[in-house]
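Researcher: Please translate sequence to structure tokens.
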Amino acid sequence: MAADLSLQHAPVSSTFFRKFPTGDFCLTEEQVAFFHENGYLAGVKILEDEQVEMLREELETFFDANHDRRDLWYEYHTNESATPDTVLFHALGAWRVGAGFHDILWAPPFVQAAEQLINGKVRFWHDQLFCKPANHGGVVAWHQDYSYWTRTKPMAHLTCWIGLDDADRDNGCVQYVPGSHKWDLLPITGLAGNMDAIQEVLTPEQWEQFQQPVAAELKKGEATFHHPLMVHGSFANRTDRPRRAAVINVFRDGVCSDSDDVLLAGVPPVAKGEKMEGQFFPLLSST
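Model: Translation complete:
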């Protein structure tokens, strides 16, 4: 196995991959229509319980800041929360470090759903881990993903949030503002700490719509997909249960770089106007 798993553009662990179910995982027309109308789609089954447990075991090794391959992360924060009293483990680049988190990119239930929702072949952008420990888990403040991704064009992105624990209102599941994906791009107001910061950049009409968020409660192994402009966030975890999640961000094949600067830490720049492809942006397939 290569030291840097980004060199492998296919599953590296037959043990893990053959545990993916086989069959047709296409979404229904009703599910696709709901996504386009509301900006999100929750409750899509991606992983079986045994797969979730394998990922949890792999994740546990990442919590040690001195773990193997630690130099491969794009970002690594043992706590990105605003205070030490609340904890938000947030890291980008697990696909380069662990076989399980590498191989879920090719999970048929994920890839087939993503292709339908993005209306085309998908390339990997980057992954994220968002973990809130029991009793003192921090928040993820309200934001739009694409506000962090404007260095790519066109805006043809999609996010898949996969629960590694049951996620509900009490332990800090993702919450959405339905229809906010039809808003314009908002300024960045911060990812951790202040759940109220976004109010500063909303119009009165947007603020009124903002008052009715929807909690995307999930069972472990289930996912919620959302549009890159969807306003979303998650509140603190004060329960005696952890809330761990893996996030896969993708874009439609053909998206180009819109910057000559580094797109991800440690990744060579892609010249402005050039197609996003190569070692770090593989084309994903379920076959």
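Researcher: Any highlights?
Model: The CA atoms of residues 160 and 225 lie 4 Å apart.
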